Amino acid sequence: MSNSGRTITESVTRTSESTPSPTSAKPVQVKLVLLGEAAVGKSSLVLRFVNNEFSENKEPTIGAAFLTQKCRLEDNKVIKFEIWDTAGQERFHSLAPMYYRNAQAAVVVYDVTKAASLDKAKSWVKELQRQANPNIVIALAGNKIDLVEPQDDSEVLSNIFREVPTEEARAYALEAGLLFFETSAKKGEGVVNVFTEIAKKIPVEHIMSANRSGSRQNILNQSSSRIDFQPGGLNGPIDNCID
Amino acid sequence: MDEEYDVIVLGTGLTECILSGLLSVEGKKVLHMDRNDYYGGESASLDLTRLYRKFRPGGTKPDEYGRDRDWNVDLIPKFMMANGELVKILIHTDVTRYIEFKDISGSYVASGEKIYKVPASEQDALTSSLMGMFEKRRLKNFLEFLQKWNDDDPSTHQGVNLDTTTMSAVYDKFRLEPGTREFVGHAMALYLDDSYLERSARETYERIILYITSVTRFPNLKSPYIYPLYGLGELPQGFARLSAIYGGTYMLNKQIDEIVYEDGKVVGVRSENETARAKQVIGDPSYFTSKVRKVGEVVRAICILTHPIPNTDSNMNSVQIIIPQNQAKRKHDIYVASLSNTHFVCAQNYYLAIVSTIVETDNPEAELQPGLKLLGPIKEKFVYKSDLQEPIEDGTKDGVFISRSYDATSHFESVCADVKDIYKRVTGKDLVVQQRARQEE
Q: Could you mention a single GO BP entry for this protein (chain B) (predicted)?
């Protein structure tokens, strides 16, 4: 637990090098990982959240290390999500331990039109509970609800039916202690909600106090210092804030 | 996997993962497979369960060591030179974004029955008890000579030609004592034996400069070394992620049954009833047993301790100790590399130490004794011997490019040299390592 706390210390220190606006506190950096079967829309969900865009027939994930997005809470605390995509490494069960390391949040995605994808989501939840930080906040997101909603335009969608009833998934999420949402990355429905509800549930105070004690300890015992390769520049260049 | 790829990579050791990452970034279609269910191959860091599975077949890990995830035990003991090639490649590829690093708190060298801190700065050198007052001045002159050296300015050469003068003659010129030569050659230039003395001085010059520039590479370093949090196994994982982000396909726990050739050239790799096709295959020696030869053996002892290494400074959470060959009456140095919970490689209140050397006798474990003796009481010890292997051919004929085993040196310079060498043979061009413009995310 203290391990993850200290990782945050460093991130916050780096982020704080840019002048904070007078109204906002230092953003608390939160590593969020995406999980779920291939082609359930993990990347689309994030692109909708971060860039508010969607592209049909998107190629499997290529070229993004991770995206960042800030979320302001009601009490003016700012959470900066560092969102890690699987980069396709989940396809053949080859995600590295590095992926889960110090993740404080996870969005486990399934496709409401594919029952098997919920089974897969359940196995990812088990994996997270085994490998990840014990306080990790996990959200279950049933994506592609646009495919099963009544269509009011001319799009004809044949042979696509909901295979996962909302109540069944909700009951599982409740039992497993997960946040639950249904989303459409295509239409944008429910997407921002996933991230803001996670942001609310993140134990910000805990992370911040862990940071404080972590840094104090570092100064006192003169233990090794972390190496900064590009001072101030490690957090990725994109910073599309909601606010 | 029944598809055509540009390159198939076998084994997820660091060398293979760096190459896979570099090639994917360049737009090559890469399939990367490993027979193990974890990343890293011979350069992995293992959790306790996997550590016991590897070294105590049939045994189980004791409960007292705590949770698996608190342990990341390196199989190969190496630290990163802060100004070395690996750091340059990490920055070039932006893999620094996935991994955090800390410094190693000290480097020691054995002399007689004692260990001494290797001076990391001029100030250290002046206060070190390793040598006398006059010798300190001679060492200072020698190091200043090296630091001022400029190939284009003969006035800095003092009659030395780095390409023809032997290192031994350079030491003579500065009248360095045998003890100082041993310390410079083994603890700064990091040579494992004394064969460098009769070679031209340039190589030693470059190694000493690497040492000095590493100590000053980042603020407040206490040694020339840095180390990735959670173990060296993070390095291959980071480069594998880079490769995946640029389209590389990853398959762990994949049985490799056959390297398929046609007319003496590689055409693909078969796993059970699937065959992936490619004209180039890169891999570690374990996937090509008939195409490699043994050039030596290394013996290593991974030790779990409940205390820091005795006789080091009180705040040392991580150290390297070099026992030069002559001190141990051997032909090769013995290295000790120790880490702790500070680098998240073991549970709190435990320490790890790996003692290693090149095998010279029929009783390799006994050869480690001078190093083991420095550790104090050892709670658990895993001793293992590995062959050092290298490819017999360079791959131009059959399209198979095989990496070298991880050697006994204490850093990654030889690994990076191998990466650059294979890269050139695979792509036909030199690897130019520089800071790239950040790609759009």
A: vesicle-mediated transport
Nearest to A89 among B97, B234, B244 (CB): B244
The phi and psi torsions of B412 (rounded to 5 degrees) equal -105, 10
- Tens of pLDDT, residue by residue over B209-243, are 999 999 999 988 889 999 999 999 999 999 999 99
ipTM of the complex in this document: 0.83
Partners of A101 on chain B (C-beta within 8 Å) are 230
CA-CA distance, B81 to B79, in Å (whole number)? 7
Give the CATH number of domain B119-215. 1.10.405.10
pTM of the model: 0.89
Of B91, B230, B253, the CB nearest to A229: B91
Measured between CA atoms, the residue of chain B closest to residue A240 is B441
Domain boundaries, chain A: 2-221
What's the topology of domain A2-221?
Rossmann fold (3.40.50)
Asked if A223's CB is within 8 angstroms of B342's CB, the reply is yes
Q: Are A12 and A26 in contact (CB under 8 A)?
A: yes
* Tens of pLDDT, residues A82-131: 999 888 898 888 999 999 888 999 999 999 999 999 999 999 999 998 88
Residues of A in contact with B254 (CB under 8 A): 92
